[in-house]
Structure formats: C-alpha cells, structure tokens
Write a structure and sequence with these properties.
With 425 residues, the chain is α/β, with parallel strands linked by helices. The chain folds into two domains: 94 residues, Winged helix-like DNA-binding domain superfamily/Winged helix DNA-binding domain (Arc Repressor Mutant, subunit A, Orthogonal Bundle); 250 residues, Vaccinia Virus protein VP39 (Rossmann fold), CATH 3.40.50. Helices cover 51% and strands 12% of the residues. It has an eight-stranded mixed beta sheet with strand order 5-4-3-6-7-9-10-8. Strands 1-2 form a two-stranded antiparallel sheet. The radius of gyration is 24 Å and the shape is globular.
C-alpha cells in the first residue's frame, strides 16, 4: 500500500473497482484494435512520433488521435515523454505488421469480425446457438468461403497464433521412422512447415478448405518446402487423404460439437495406416474453474467456441470419450515437456537441443515399434514407478495453470494411446 494514497481501493471500496476495471477493459481492447487498424505501430516504427505527424500520415483527426495514443500509453503499448512525443513499448511492437512475433492480424480479426459477434453472447447463452450464425448468416466457417478478405485475415491470425507452438511440436514430438504426415485443417501450413524443416526425411500433405490453399502454397514456396509438401483443397468431414504415417489435428476438435468432432476422428481413423499415429493438439478444460488469468484464458477460448463455430473446450475425460467412440483405446498419461524440464533441472542442465529428445524420455513416452501391440512394457517396476512420479508432478502442475498447457494425444491404431502434455512458455 502506498502511504500517501491510503488504503487500497479493494480495502476501501470492496470489489466494485475490480468490476469497473473489467467493464472498462472491454472498451479499451477496442482501442487497441483501432490502433492496429490504423497501422499506428508501423508508422511509429518508421519515425512518426507525435499525434500531428501520425494524424497527417493516417488522415485522421489530430486531437482525437492524441487521445487514442494516451489511452494506448495507459495500457503499456506506448510511452509518452514530456515533449508530447510517443514511442512504442515492447508490447506495442506486437502491433507492427512486419515483425515475426506480430499479433496485428489477430487484433484486426477481433476488432472487425469478432467484436459484433461477442455483442450477441446473450443469444448464444439463451439458445445454445452460434452468435456468428446470427450476425453473418453463415454456419461454422462459412463466412470464410464467401468473404476473401475475412478468410485472409483469419488465416493470418492462425499463422500468428501457431508460431508460438510450431517449433515446440516439431522438436518435442517423435517423428522418427515416419515418411509422410498430413496436417488436417492446417491453414497456411505454419505448423506443418516447422515439422518438415525439423525432420528432413518427412514429406507433408496439407488439407484445408479452398480459402486457405493459395496461402499455404505460398508459405511452402517461401520456406523452400514446395517439393516436399502437397496442398489439397478438401473437406475433412468428407474425406481425409489416406496412407500417411501420422495425422495432425491442431485446434480442430474444439471448433465442433461432439457429433461433428466424432466424424473428424472417424475419418482420421479410416485414413491412418495400421501402425500410424494421430496427434491432436488441444487445450484442456479444468474440471473446476478458479479466479486466475490462466483460467480466464481458457474460459475466453471456450466462450469463443460457443459464439463462433459452436464447439467447446473439453476436459480430459470428455476428450477421452470422443476418442473411445472413434475406436482409439488404451491411455498412458505422461507429460513430455514436464519430464524434459524436470530432467533438465535434476541433472544439472544441458543444452536445449540435447534435452529435447532424450533417449530415456522417448523410451518411456514415445517408444517406437508400436505395431503389434509393443507400445509399453509395464513389467519394468522402475519404469512404472518413474511414470507414476511424473504423472503426479503433471497433476500438480496442471492444477496451477491450465491455459498454457496443450495436449498432444498420440495414438497407434494397433497399440496404446499416448497422452503427452506440452508446456508453452
């Protein structure tokens, strides 16, 4: 507590200031979206630092733009000096369009296309129906088929959000012995490109709707992967390319209700070769919510599925039910990244590339030779005790933070199903 300011607002006024700040944050989020739309960060990075300079470049009302800049400063996106000039902060730089960690497309997608839909959350809560359908008249992702600008923005958004996990998937998952993988609903191919770059023996197939195909082809061309990757326009509810060693579903199942999710898993089940694997990357909904930023992040994602395509985030048992229905059975729970981090700490540390694929970890979690039921040897008491120790650590960790954990479900048609959790920093 500051001695000059007296008791904290929480102590003096109860929870009201917290709720008021929550209400205000919704409007201020729109201010950030407007800044992204006006390319303010790009202009500031190019040398424009005052409201007058920016207003002239944008073609906006200088006093009003100055007020927006001060709002951005209050949010930590800009700094204002005594002369009235503004400079980007590291967080503000995320609004630039020319950086590898840009989130500008996501802000534009939210401001232009999600904002009106969130305004109809009441409709979804009352009826269980998609607010997006009410606003746009299109079911699921039908808007993207009919609006090229919306499709390009959505796919760019998925690129920006996938960058954070692509390298982790590529290096943490065992693709040894595989020759061909299919990314189902892979958008512009950010994840698949990362996997192919990390594993030169692999060839890839990307399946998505026509609105994503051109952008995906351009991505593989820029990455020098065009000769190793086939791009196919199709509908994963109808047919999935057959005969690959592994199939990837990243943030696909959460878009759909149980019936449609089961249809996707059934189609993957029919497409996978006898000793193939399915890798599903999803958030895990906790059994009970708590008041924390981590839980709010997954609550946001869950409500976004409600108002959008009509899906939801699922708990681990709910995911397991879907898998059982599709014919995937046997579950061994472990946390690959948690094990890697624990091993890193307990052994005194190694270089990153050395502990991404430790032999012991892969012996426990991703043992090769799954065909014929040889996935796990439960007769080794020491291994079993170590597995149980890791699973207990996993339980403790996930109770603290659900939003930053993604699930990697690895299946073998003829053997056990592996559940690997990946910690995202």
């Amino acid at each position: 507590m500051n001695a000059l300011s007296g008791p904290s607002d929480q102590h003096r006024y109860g929870p009201a200031p917290v709720l008021i700040a929550l209400i205000q944050s919704a409007a201020l989020a729109q201010a950030v979206c407007v800044a992204a739309d006006l390319r303010i960060a790009d202009l500031m990075a190019g040398g424009c630092t005052t409201a007058d300079e920016l207003a002239q470049a944008i073609g906006s009302h200088p006093p009003s733009l100055h007020r927006l800049l001060r709002a951005l400063t209050s949010l930590g996106l800009c700094d204002e000096d005594q002369a009235g000039s503004f400079a980007l902060t590291p967080m503000g730089s995320l609004l630039r369009s020319d950086t590898s960690d840009s989130l500008r497309s996501w802000l534009l997608w939210f401001g232009r296309y999600q904002w009106p839909v969130w305004g109809r959350l009441l409709h979804s809560v009352r009826t269980g129906e998609s607010a997006r359908m009410l606003v746009t008249g299109a079911q699921g992702f039908g808007l993207l088929q009919n609006d090229p600008e919306a499709a390009a923005l959505f796919n760019d958004t998925m690129v920006q959000l996938t960058r954070a996990v692509a390298a982790e998937v590529a290096y943490a998952c065992d693709f040894a012995g595989m020759r061909r993988i299919v990314d189902v609903g892979g958008g512009y191919g950010t994840l698949l490109a990362a996997v192919l770059q990390a594993h030169p023996q692999l060839r890839g197939v990307l399946l998505d709707m026509p609105h994503a195909i051109e952008g995906a082809a351009q991505q593989f061309e820029r990455s020098g992967l065009a000769e190793r990757c086939e791009v196919i326009a199709g509908d994963f509810f109808q047919r999935i390319p057959e005969g690959a060693d592994a199939y990837i579903l990243k943030n696909i199942i959460h878009d759909w209700d149980d019936e449609r999710s089961s249809a996707i898993l059934d189609n993957c089940r029919r497409a996978i070769v006898a000793d193939g694997k399915l890798l599903v990357i999803e958030r895990v909904m906790p059994a009970r919510m708590e008041d924390s930023s981590a839980y709010r992040a997954i609550a946001y994602a869950d409500l976004a599925m409600l108002i959008g395509p009509g899906g939801r985030e699922r708990t681990e048992p709910e995911l397991q039910i879907l898998l059982d229905r599709a014919g995937y059975d046997g579950l061994v729970a472990a946390m690959q990244r948690a094990l890697l981090r624990l091993g890193h700490v307990e052994t005194g540390g190694t270089e990153p590339h050395q502990f991404l694929h430790p032999p012991q970890t892969h012996r426990l979690l991703c043992r090769p030779g799954l065909a014929g039921g040889g996935g796990c040897n439960e007769t080794n008491t020491q291994e079993q005790n170590e597995r149980e120790r890791i699973e207990q650590k996993v339980t403790e960790i996930t109770k603290r933070d659900f939003s930053s954990w993604f699930v990697f479900w690895k299946f073998s048609i003829s053997s056990n199903l592996f559940l690997n959790f990946q910690k995202m920093s």
